[in-house]
Amino acid sequence: MDRDRKPQGPRNSPAIKFVTKGTSQGGTVINAAGNVTMGDHVEHNTIMDTHRMSLYPDFVVPDASHEGSGSRSGCLKGTREAVIGKIVNWKDDVAGSPICFLSGPAGFGKSAISQTVAESWAGDGTLIASFFFLRGAGGRSEFARLITTISFQITVSIPGTKPIIEKALRDDPSIPHQSITKQLEKLVLGPLASVTAAHSPAHPFIIVIDALDECNDKRAMNDFIGILTSAASTRRLPLRWLLTSRREEHVNQAFSDDIARATVTGVALEDFDAAFDIEAFLNHRFSEILKRNPRLMRGISPPWPSIEEIQALVWKADGMFVFASNLVDFITDGKAPPQRKLNNALSLHAGLDPLYLQVLGAVPDIPWFCSVLTTLMLLRKQPSVNTLADLLRLNVEDVLHALNFIQSIIRVPADDFTPVLLNHTSLRDFLLDGSRSHGRFIDSPSAAHFTLAADCLKFMNRSFQQDVFAENAGSLYTIEHWVGHLQDSAVASEVLPELFRTLDDFVSSEAMEVWSNLLILNRMTTQTQKKLNKLIDKYQWVRDQLLANFEDLDPFIGPLTIFSASLVAVKQRRSKGSESSVYSYGLTKREELKRHGC
């Protein structure tokens, strides 16, 4: 997180004199050994040698490097040491792969780690270029300027490449408009090969590209990753690349082929416990607040906040440095005394709302997306992809298509049987609170609960109509939770006929007996009886509907215990280790119950 930036040394501030004049995006560029004025924006010449930039002014992003202007911060000293250590070990390993890919969910601190290692490697002379993508930041979000900007930085870091690159551009000024493969070869790999062939460096050079997912051209980024991994597998150069990104689908695809797997070292940020580091960050920042505001904080003795309060904030952050950082910003925004803001922060839930709006708002028009998202948020147990597909009557591929667009805020497993997880529980809170999400994604949670209850009943009506059926995560979920979803719903009058028909189909068919048997087999009878009683108390029409099929309500609730005496269950597991186990039941028929006075 925040820390003091290193002062820029002479190596970063070339003392040269030059005079250039031209245009850049409609503004005049005039320089006389000082600052570069672009329209109304001034770029200081302590970072970029604009004489070199005059070769291709329209294809260089001056503030894209780790030294660029804008809000940039590395990790607090002493934090993220485990993950940084793994990246440094990759860099120093003589037999290491040419590419390291640091991946992680949104808000976990990937850019802070990139900033930290970039500063360190700039200090030891191994960093030759860096590009930090940032969505909505002009050139920093454009792929078209990536390779040319990296090439420009290389001419500054390795002066021997300058005449090679300048000659290539003079001979063929169209290079910045050529394919990714040709740009990479002519502006980066070729010049480095020429220079290092005669003078091999003691350590490999490093190029850092942060936040691939922030690039506005997904197709170009996908192609670039494929071209880079292919080139890295064939070109033996003293060059390594550190790439970072959220788990966006186009990025995942690019890293999934055999060539990428052979040339890339993967580092998953969520594999590292960040609780200690977030606690250290919060303690550091809060101690600064206490020192800098003696009048506001008089009467408050350290430690502030208390250990319990710090632990509560760490729990809320749940591994997300962005949440911890936003929380500190909230407390120190000056709108109220810090102690009062801390009390508010302990119940704060809006820290990640802008991020959620950004990710969800970028999802294309997928007809079933909202259904998948709503079901994922409202189910009482995190479902697998298969469970979502079963409940919604969708193909597994359709469910994956919807989920892949929000992989930066959820965790989509590698198989169809493992539960889909949320990166942070605040996502559910955000989506179910209309005042925060503006009802853009889940219009009415209570109405959605009704739909889920109906979906569960329909699933059982479809699946429980035969003596042999699959007992899987979907069936186990529906038998346990359909009553709860109906209890949490607010049923509109216009949809009652549909629910009447669905419930009638259920209670008048063999599906109800199967449901009852499964409840007994899975020891769910007591809790389900309680839910049914509450449901009947809430909805008179449910009582009326049940009475239309039974002389009294005992045959509906009572069989949960009566069935246990006559249930014959023989488990026949057909496939070990899978989500699905198939069972055969001797079903207790309604007629048999009636003969016993039920």
How would you describe this structure to a colleague?
The protein has 598 residues and is of the alpha/beta class. The chain folds into 4 domains: 10-271, P-loop containing nucleotide triphosphate hydrolases (Rossmann fold, 3-Layer(aba) Sandwich), CATH 3.40.50.300; 275-348, no CATH class; 354-443, Arc Repressor Mutant, subunit A; 447-595, no CATH class. It has 28 helices and 14 strands. α4 packs parallel to α6 (180-198) and α5 (162-171) runs antiparallel to α6. The N and C termini lie far apart (67 Å). This is Nephrocystin 3-like N-terminal domain-containing protein. InterPro entries: NPHP3-like_N (IPR056884), P-loop_NTPase (IPR027417). Pfam families: NPHP3_N.
Helical run tally: 28
What CATH architecture of the largest domain would you give?
Answer: 3-Layer(aba) Sandwich
Return the domain count: 4
CATH topology of the largest domain: Rossmann fold
| The CATH superfamily title of the largest domain | P-loop containing nucleotide triphosphate hydrolases
Rounded radius of gyration (Å): 31 Å
Into which percentage range does the β-strand content fall? 5-15%
Distance between termini? 67 Å
Helix fraction, binned, reads 40-55%
As residue ranges, the low-confidence spans are 1-54, 555-598
Provide the spatial order of strands within the biggest beta sheet.
6-7-8-5-9
Mean pLDDT: 77
Q: Shape from CA axes? A: globular
CATH class of the largest domain reads Alpha Beta
Structural class: alpha/beta
Count the E strands.
Answer: 14
Q: Which sheet architecture does the biggest sheet show?
A: 5 strands, parallel
Domain Nephrocystin 3-like N-terminal: 87-246
InterPro entries: NPHP3-like_N (IPR056884), P-loop_NTPase (IPR027417)
Organism: Athelia psychrophila
Keywords: Repeat
